[in-house]
Design brief:
The complex is a heterodimer of chains A (172) and B (256). Helices cover 73% and strands 0% of the residues of chain A. Chain A contains eight helices and no strands. Chain A is globular. In chain A, 38% of the residues are buried. Chain B is an alpha+beta fold and 256 residues long. Chain B has two domains: 10-62, no CATH class; 76-254, no CATH class. Chain B has helices at residues 10-17, 23-33, 37-62, 67-74, 85-94, 99-106, 138-146, 207-216, 222-231, 239-247; strands at 126-128, 134-136, 158-165, 171-178, 182-191, 194-204. In chain B, strands 1-2-6-5-4-3 form a six-stranded antiparallel β-sheet. In chain B, helix 1 packs across helix 3. Chain B starts with 9 loop residues before the first helix and ends in a 9-residue tail after the last helix. The chains are: A mainly alpha (172), B alpha+beta (256). Chains A and B meet through helix 1, helix 2, helix 5, helix 6 and helix 8 of A and helix 1, helix 3 and helix 4 of B.
Chain lengths: 172, 256
Amino acid sequence: MDASYDTIRSQIAALVPRLRRFALSVTGNRADADDLVQDTVERALRHLDQWQQGTRLDSWMFRIAQNLFIDARRAARRKRAVFVDTEATMAEAGYDGERAAEAHMAWRETCAALSTLPEDQRSVIALVLVDGMTYRDAADVLGVPIGTVTSRLARGRETLAARIFGSTAELR
Amino acid sequence: MSGERPEINRETLDAYVDGELAPDEMTRVAALLGERADFKTYVDSQLALRDRLSVSFAPLMAEPIPNRLQRTLRTAPPRLCVTSWREWLGEFLSWRVGVPLAASLAFGLVIGVAIERSVRTELPFVSSSQNGPVLAHGELAGALSEQLAASDQINRRVRIGISFRSRSGLDCRTFEWLGTTMTTNGVACHTGGDWTVAALTTTWRTANDRAAYQMAGAAMPDAIRNIVNEMIAGAPYDAAAERAARDTHWSGAKRP
């Protein structure tokens, strides 16, 4: 590893806002999202030797986050945990220091809509539409073919648009 | 390419919105938006969806990093893992070690180190063969052999902590290595003329941390303290015993 640890640590710190946004998109509440990012960063720092220098640090970290998210959901299912209604949790969570009523409304609607998506579609939406990743990068993070990314994306888009705008624009 | 152009469908328009089409396709779809109201409506709705998502998460992006995470980023967890002696024992038994270490095992001393492979190269003061023990060398070996804890250790790269006799009769010493980006604490025992590193643990340090360490030093990490507690026979050496051990070349139980 050529880059100093301090440099890599700075690069990881710079990725935190994006990771938090991804985590909130997929988990739907602040507490779980913060735990997910915390776990992601800790795991990344612990296993930094597994990251190949010269490859994308962000892809590697998003992959860790996605895998931890999936693991946590599986573990929760195994425990047959009773979850608080995700939609309500997301909508009530809000933002710390939220001031703009308009942004808050947008947030509530967005979270409610995201919570209706299956997890695999939510992850793709979070990576491509929220984070702005390319299809190739999203496929790399999720470990699926690009075709899977585009099909999940199409289904997720349709559901989200219907939930947020009340309808989906039809093509002739 | 002169082949027939693919039909424009919803997936094509999605890819247009996401900027995933080749430049000539982007141009073709952009031109078609002026002719096809349904395309235009669909693309506008998808752009609005992206905007909505972006606006919804914008406040989060402006938030400071949570304190807990900041602490993690400041003081990263150890990259070198000291295994518990019980976990490590099985591995150790498979090592082809020299007689002194093998003998020490017979007396109940458990001494071991687990170093992640890729990190070995980051530690300029230790060396190891494929499955052999990890040996101190260079500046660390010199400090372990010569430096006394009672001496002025401020501004030294290696600091010696305590020295002690192990339960199997070896002279052992704890040390701290101040690297440029990380601080490594460890314990090493003198065996067959070499300092065999029994355990290491490394913590990254910020520049501020390093400055503070340089002046004050730091407490022994729990991982190392626990290993020492497993190994030590009696109390650590006082200054006179430490000096006597050095002057007799860390001969351990053979010292008169």
